């Protein structure tokens, strides 16, 4: 199902901001209006209303260093600074020269070019720094460089206002060339610092199921995957052979086919370059961006939807598993037959049921005008054959040792045995996201299943079942009782399970 044509895809990004009302300002006779409260008062308010979550504290400690106590203090102080800083900025007016936080616990610093403002600023609890240039002066200098962007040397990767050094910084691969640009810009040289830099910025793109990719023709991305530290995606085998180069939906160089099987099978995987980031989502087009939380195969009769770059998002039902299909090129075995329609160019695209990845589009008959029958290659077989890990929504590649989770459990299994954590009776959880990580012994195949109690029956709601010792996945569920089943599919030895519950 290859077709030569162009396709565009959008990216949806959402952000939420929560505002907290300020208390009354403290102001003495003849004084300029001060911040609505001091940093100490703001910290007290933050600690009472927005305690940092354990998972966030662990992530800050992991990536920024320091202790858990310092990470917690950092988060509280940063939230307090955000409440106090706008008022201090307004108090300074034209003499405001920037603000920042510093140190392992993020202490607020306010800069001003007016020495008469220092004493009143200090009453807020912030550190005050007296500098020569106001932020407005520095912004004007940078805007002058912005207007000259067409004549800027390619060896300059970036320029910006650096409030810490009270200057405009120009990063330069060639310092002499950059200095000549600054000297000819008309900007006061005393405001600018040229710094040597090896930075080489590049645009970054997301790998999403259902998006187009090109390789002489056009196919569609199935699901994002990783193998070790290498990211990529699964797709149909008939879309390319090992060594075939791919371009993304935007025609930018993307990656290379690493493995492919067709006919007999119809699966492949592509390793992407550093410009592309695998994400645990499917582009549902009119249905929005859809999360992928696992790859549990659904039973016959279940609803299933397909995303592809020609006909976009279409739905139907599962007719049969383990189907053999004969194409002109040969017979393919082990496919799943569905009532979802598809057309040329949809090949390789995502089949998803709920939030569970099912497979990649292989072929079929009919079209999306008159209807038809289509077949997909099951995703779990692709993961197993190539030793890939499915990228799920918000989940990076499996972490070594499963650190940074709310709870940690250890145990030991023999081949084909099971264990339940934190026990057979499970744990109570509120509505929200469960994070599960399994670190099994090297050379084994250990799997993890998140189960929910329904009446007296435990039902698997999410799983990690690759042909690897390590698994990691998330699941967004309703309140209830849950447990994790650890299964030694092959091999024996000790394991560690990381679990964060809502």
Automatic annotation (TrEMBL):
Report the superkingdom from the record. Answer: Bacteria
Record key words, sorted? Disulfide bond, Hydrolase, Protease, Serine protease, Signal, Zymogen
Q: Which Pfam families match?
A: Pro_Al_protease (PF02983)
Domain named Peptidase S1A alpha-lytic prodomain is located at 133-189
SUPFAM superfamilies membership:
Alpha-lytic protease prodomain (SSF54806), Collagen-binding domain (SSF89260), Trypsin-like serine proteases (SSF50494)
Which is one GO molecular function term here? peptidase activity
Which InterPro entries does the protein's record reference? Alpha-lytic_protease_prodomain, Pept_S1_alpha_lytic, Pept_S1A_streptogrisin, Peptidase_S1_PA, Peptidase_S1_PA_chymotrypsin, Streptogrisin_prodomain
Task: Name the GO terms of the biological process aspect.
Answer: proteolysis
Q: Provide the leader sequence positions.
A: 1-24
Family that this chain belongs to: Belongs to the peptidase S1 family.
Name assigned to this protein: Alpha-lytic protease prodomain-containing protein
What is the protein's species of origin? Streptosporangium oxazolinicum
Q: What is the lineage of its organism?
A: Bacteria, Bacillati, Actinomycetota, Actinomycetes, Streptosporangiales
């Amino acid at each position: 199902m290859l077709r030569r044509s162009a396709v565009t895809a959008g990216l949806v990004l959402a952000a939420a901001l929560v505002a907290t009302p300020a208390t009354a300002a403290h102001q003495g006779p003849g004084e300029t209006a001060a911040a609505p409260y001091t940093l100490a008062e703001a910290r007290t308010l933050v600690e009472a209303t927005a305690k940092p979550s354990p998972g966030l504290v662990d992530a800050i400690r992991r990536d920024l260093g320091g202790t858990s106590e310092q990470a917690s203090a950092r988060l509280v102080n940063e939230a307090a600074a955000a409440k106090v800083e706008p008022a201090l900025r307004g108090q300074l007016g034209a003499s405001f020269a920037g603000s920042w936080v510093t140190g392992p616990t993020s202490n607020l610093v306010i800069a001003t070019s007016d020495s008469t403002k220092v004493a009143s600023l200090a009453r807020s609890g912030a550190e005050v720094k007296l500098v020569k240039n106001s932020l407005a002066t520095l912004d004007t200098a940078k805007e002058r460089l912005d207007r000259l962007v067409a004549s800027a040397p390619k060896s300059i990767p970036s320029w910006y206002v650096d409030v810490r050094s009270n200057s405009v910084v120009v990063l330069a691969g060639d310092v002499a060339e950059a200095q000549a640009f600054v000297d000819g810009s008309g900007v006061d040289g005393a405001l600018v610092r040229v710094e040597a830099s090896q930075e080489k910025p590049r645009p970054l793109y997301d790998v999403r199921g259902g998006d187009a990719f090109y390789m002489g023709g056009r196919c569609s991305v199935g699901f994002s995957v990783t193998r070790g530290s290498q990211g990529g995606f699964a797709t149909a085998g008939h879309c390319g052979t090992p060594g075939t180069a791919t371009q993304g939906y935007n025609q930018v160089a993307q990656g290379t086919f690493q493995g492919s099987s067709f006919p007999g099978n119809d699966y492949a995987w592509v390793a992407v370059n550093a410009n592309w980031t695998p994400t645990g989502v499917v582009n549902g087009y009119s249905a929005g961006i859809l999360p992928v939380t696992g790859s549990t195969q659904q039973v016959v009769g279940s609803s299933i939807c397909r995303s592809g770059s020609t006909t976009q998002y279409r739905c139907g039902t599962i007719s049969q598993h383990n189907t053999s299909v004969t194409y002109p090129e040969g017979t393919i075995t082990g496919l799943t037959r569905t009532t979802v329609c598809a057309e040329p160019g949809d090949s390789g695209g995502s089949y998803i049921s709920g939030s569970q990845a099912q497979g990649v589009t292989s072929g079929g008959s009919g079209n999306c005008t008159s209807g038809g029958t289509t077949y997909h290659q099951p995703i779990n077989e692709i993961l197993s054959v190539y030793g890939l890990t499915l990228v799920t929504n918000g989940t990076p590649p499996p972490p070594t040792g499963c650190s940074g989770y709310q709870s940690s459990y250890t145990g030991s299994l023999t081949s084909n045995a099971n264990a339940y954590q934190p026990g057979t009776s499970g744990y109570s959880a509120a509505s929200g996201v469960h994070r599960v990580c399994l670190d099994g012994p090297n050379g084994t195949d250990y799997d993890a299943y998140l189960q929910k109690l329904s009446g007296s029956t435990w039902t698997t709601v999410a799983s990690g079942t690759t042909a690897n010792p390590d698994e990691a996945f998330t699941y967004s569920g309703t309140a209830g009782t849950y447990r994790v089943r650890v299964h030694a599919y092959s091999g024996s030895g000790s394991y560690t399970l990381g679990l964060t519950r809502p």
